[in-house]
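[09:14] KT: can someone run the structure on this one? pasting the chain below
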Amino acid sequence: MKMTTYRAILCLASWLFAVACAALSTPQDRPLRIFAFGDSTTATRETVGAVYAQRLPQLLAAEAIDATVWNSGLGGSHSGRRVDNGRHKIDHALDRLNVAVRAGCPDVVVIQFGINDSWIDSDNEEDASRIPLSEYAWNLREIVLSLQGDGATTILMTPGLLGSNLAPWRDARLATYADAVQKVAQDTDSPFVDVRAIMGRMPSVDELLLDGTHPNDVGHMLVAEALTQLIAELERKGELPRREESAEDFQRIFEEGRD
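[09:31] RB: done, C-alpha cells below
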C-alpha cells in the first residue's frame, strides 16, 4: 500500500472516530483531553514502568481533574518533516501532526522535541545538527500556532539534560535548542516547563537517565509532577476550557491531513 493511501486511511479513521466521540459528549461532561507530542523521551518504553504521559491521569485525579491522556511520542522523531532529515524513516512531527494530534481535538497538547533535532551524526562538534536551530524554532512555532488555531492550549517543554557518558558539547548544543523553546513559548503565550532546570536541581543527572538520553522512572516522575502542577494551576484559573467541536472542524483537519 502506498504511503499516501495509508495516511489517507489513517486520517479518515481518526476523523470518523473524533466525530463519533463528539456526538457522544459535550465539553461539560467529558474529561480533559491531553495529548503528549514528542520523540522517544515522550514515547512509551519497555524499560520504563510508566512515562510521564502514563502518570498524568492519576496525578491529575489527585488534583480533582478528570483527564484522558494520549501518548503521541515517536522514537527518532524530530520537529520537522522527513524531507528535512530522513535518517529515521518515519513520519516526523509536522508529517504526523494532523493525524496523530489534531484529529483527536485535544484540549491540551504537551510538546517536547529537540534531542533528535540538535543531534550531530558525527563526533565533530563543528558539524551541523540534523535540523538547524532556526528551522527547529520555526517548526515549533508552526506546531503551536496550528494547535492554538484549533482552540487547544499548548504547553512547551524543553528537552532534558544529557548524561555524563556523552560529550559535553552535545549538551551545550542541545542547550541552544532549549533556549529556542523558551523563546517560542514566550512569543506564542504558551505555558512552559523547563525540564533542564528541573533535572539540574537534582544531585546527579545520571540518576535520572537510562542511557544518558532517555529518562528513567524517576526522571519521568519529575516531569509528570511538574506538568501536573502547571495543569492544575491553569485549571484553577479557568484557563483550560474544553473545546466544542463541530463536523466542520473535523472536516477541515481531515482535508489538511490529506496534503
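[09:33] KT: thanks! The first strand starts at residue 32 and ends at 38.
[09:34] RB: yep, looked fine to me
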